[in-house]
Every structure is written in C-alpha cells, then in structure tokens.
Input
Amino acid sequence: MTTVAVNSGIKKSKRAIPNSVMGMALFVLTETMFFTALVSAYLVIKAGYGYWAPPQGLTLPVAMTGVNTFVLLLSGALLFLAGRSAAKDKNRLALQQIVASVVLGAVFVCVQGYEWIGLITYGFTLKSSVFAGTFFLLVGAHAIHALAVLLFLGYHCRVFYQKGIDKEFLTALQILWLFVVGIWPILYGVVYF
Amino acid sequence: MNYFRTIILSLTVFSVSSPLIACAVCGVGKEESRLAFILTTGILTITPLIMLVGGAYYVYGRYKDQNVNDD
Output
C-alpha cells in the first residue's frame, strides 16, 4: 500500500489492487482447486475402470454441448468487452454488453438443463453407474456455479443501471465469470470425450 | 500423568489398528490407475504453487507500477 498526499495535507491510503478484486481473486483461487480436485478424482476413477462410457444405446449430446460451449465463450467475451467499454466511459454500451452476457449465460444453463432432462428421462441418473455419477457431479458443480454467478451478475446489472457502473466491482465480476467460462471447456473435454 | 496417558493411548491405537486399503489406486492395482494418481497428484501440487507465485508477482508488479506513477 502506498500513500499519496491530498490537498488537505492528510496522507490517504491508495490501494494498488482494490479489495473487491483481491477478494475475488482469492475466491477464484480456491474454486480452481475445487475443480482441479474434482477433475483429478474423475481421472483416477476413470483409470480404474475397464469400461468407461454411457450405457449402450445412449450417447452424450457432444455436438449440442459444443455449440453451447461456444455460447458460453461468447458470453465471457462480452463481459470482457464490457470492462473495456466501461474503462473508456462508454457506460451505456458496457451495460448492454453485461446484459447480453447474462442472457447468453442463461441460454447456456437452460440448454444444459434441457440436456439433463433428456438424459434423466432415458434413465441416465446419478445412481445408474459410476460414469453417470461422476458426469453429473462435474457438470452439475459447474452448472450450480454458472447459475449462482448469473444471479449475482443479474442483480448487479440492476445496481449498475440504477447507480452507475462501479469499474472496480465490474473487474471482480469479470474475474468470477471468466473463471466459470474458462473452466467449462476443460470439463467439456474431460467428460464428453 | 498426561504424558503417561498419551503413551498408553498411542500404544493402544498402534497395536489394535490394522492396515487399511482405502486408496483407490492400491485397491485396483492397475498401471493406468498408478499413472493417473501420480499425474493428478502432480497437478494438485503444482497448481496452487503456480497460482500463488503468479498472484504474488502480479501484486508486486502493480505496486511497482503505482510507485513509478506516484513518483
């Protein structure tokens, strides 16, 4: 922390990294370890099994999830661009980009839910096999994170609309959402292929 | 007295316990499992170290930049 002199002559603290950004970075660090542990457990369990695939006659929706992955990446890119727009004081554009990012994120979660309904209807449930259990654990953990962050983002869209964009807090939100977006292609590659 | 109790308790625990085969890799005993276990242990060890070192380096860089701008 450095100190800067202000007009009154009183020295005021100036942070190199805002508290919200630092706190979010530490939270994301722990979340990274959480997902790393889940993926590690998945790989070890998978290596111990001879037959590692969905039940016969059932295929995972790889193509549909691939398109959905692209939607999620687009959502992450839009939130990234929102940060750049806010930095240039284009607040209206930034707000539109945040809203579009939330909408695309919601589309991702809805499509995931639709896929799950299809799989569960077929009888592919958490209890049907070890493969199914680990599949739902990994994908479900990500879906819960995505849903929670989207609710958080949605709430702050309203706050930003009413009180203006807080750039530091937007950076913290970007870190959180880009983490959720960035971890998905890894999970997709590990679980679906 | 407490010291004596600790010794008795430790001896009791060590004498009555038997080896456990709870490890997923030891239970299966396959080469693929062993490799997966070593790989994931490596990843789980390196990941936090990289993140902590990277984070510390980033914070250091930000402070350094700020000091240059303040000067």
Observations:
- The longest helix of chain A spans residues 130-163.
- The beta strands of chain A are 2-5, 11-14.
- The CA atoms of residues 19 and 145 of chain A lie 22 Å apart.
- Confidence is low (pLDDT under 50) at residues 1-6 of chain A.
